[in-house]
Structure formats: structure tokens, C-alpha cells
Amino acid sequence: MLLACLGLCVLLAGPHAIEAFSLRDFVRPGSNKRDAGDKSPCPTWHPFECPSGECVPIKYLCDGSPDCSDEYDENKSMCTAATRPPVEETALFLKTLMHAHGKDFLVKVFGEKARNELAGMGGVDKVAVSLSQSPTADVFAKEFVFNPQEEQGMIGVFEGILNGTPEELTANEASDFRFFVQKLQETGFFN
Ligand SMILES: [Ca+2]
After folding, report:
1. CA-based diameter of the chain, in Å?
2. Ligand 1 centroid vs 25 CA: distance in angstroms?
3. Rounded to the nearest whole angstrom, what is the distance from the C-alpha of residue 55 to the centroid of ligand 1?
4. Which Cys-Cys disulfides exist here (predicted)?
5. 3-state SS, one letter per residue, for the chain
6. Cβ atoms within 10 Å of 53's Cβ, excluding its own
7. Which label site among 55, 68, 107, 191 has the fewest CB atoms less than 10 Å from its CB?
């Protein structure tokens, strides 16, 4: 089944202020092709792979202008719906984040259990299922047996992302994550 917008539509809410350059500067036919030898077909600075083959930065998903030649990055059902991204999109989003920022990136959000691509939490797919389906952060934290410090740390980073850039993240990391965290907020995750 075709993934709606690959979760990545998840990432773009407020980052536009940071984007001073045009995607057109980056995505030219033939200029961002696959990186042979890398596990992902796309380079880390353009981690999202369009079904049509281009590689684009996370920030250009759901930014209002098509960057994939098939406009996959602007799928309306994903970019405009005030619902939480489904499991497959969430998994792809998490994988793309780690491709862009490192396999230990999510330690900054979930703590040590997230090291090495979420190994201590059962892997990306398990985390994606829970992030997509847990009604609240509390339910999510209980599933992964977070201690209170870990749960508060996660919520603190997410709230920081909603408000700007938390001290744990760089501005780029926060902006890549923002749209997804806003989806979490809109769907009651922090209630
Ligand atoms: Ca776009």
C-alpha cells in the first residue's frame, strides 16, 4: 500500500522562518541521486526519498510547495489532516530523523533506551506504533517503562520544541521534529 506522505509531512510547521534558501537550490534533477554504499538511498542532508526518486530535506515536507516530482511531499491527507500520523508514516519519520541526525539522536528525547536506533525500546517500528497510537504521553511512557525522570525529560523536550528550541536540540533538529510534535499536541498526547 502506498504510504500517504511518508510521515514526513510531519515536519514542517514553523521552520519556514529558518528557511532562507529555496528547495530549488537543492533539488535539481540528477543532483541528489542516491548515495551508493549508504544504507539509505538518500544523503543525510536530504534524507527523505520521494517515491519518484528525488531526495529532499525533511523541512520541505508539507511546506506548501511540491518538491518531489510526483508531489508526494505535499499529500493533502497527510499535510492538512489534524490527526496523528499513522504507524507507517511515523516509522518512516523516525527513521528519516535518525538518518539525518544520527542513530543516537533520539536519546535526546527518550533517554538512553533510545540509543542505537531505539534498540532499548524494541526498535523503531515498536516506538512508531506506540507514538502513533498511545492516547497520551503517560501511556507511551508506561509502555516503555520510563521512570518519572525519563518521562518528564521527553515531555520537556517536546514542549521545548513546541515553544522554540529546547536546550537539548539544535535549531535544525527542533525544526525537523516540530510538525510531528504539533501533531502529538493536537491529538491530545500531552493531556
Ligand atoms: Ca514541499
Report:
1. 49
2. 13
3. 11
4. 50-68
5. CCCCCCCHHHHCCCHHHHCCCCHHHCCCCCCCCCCCCCCCCCCCCCCEECCCCCEECHHHCCCCCCCCCCCHHHCHHHHCCCCCCCHHHHHHHHHHHHHHHCCCCCHHHHCHHHHHHHHHHCCHHHHHHHHHHCCCHHHHHHHCCCCHHHHHHHHHHHHHHHHCCCCCCCHHHHHHHHHHHHHHHHCCCCC
6. 15
7. 191
Residues of the chain with pLDDT under 70: 1-40, 76-82
pLDDT of residue 78: 61
Per-residue confidence (pLDDT) for residue 147, from 0 to 100: 97
- Report the distance separating Cα 7 and Cα 29, nearest Å: 23
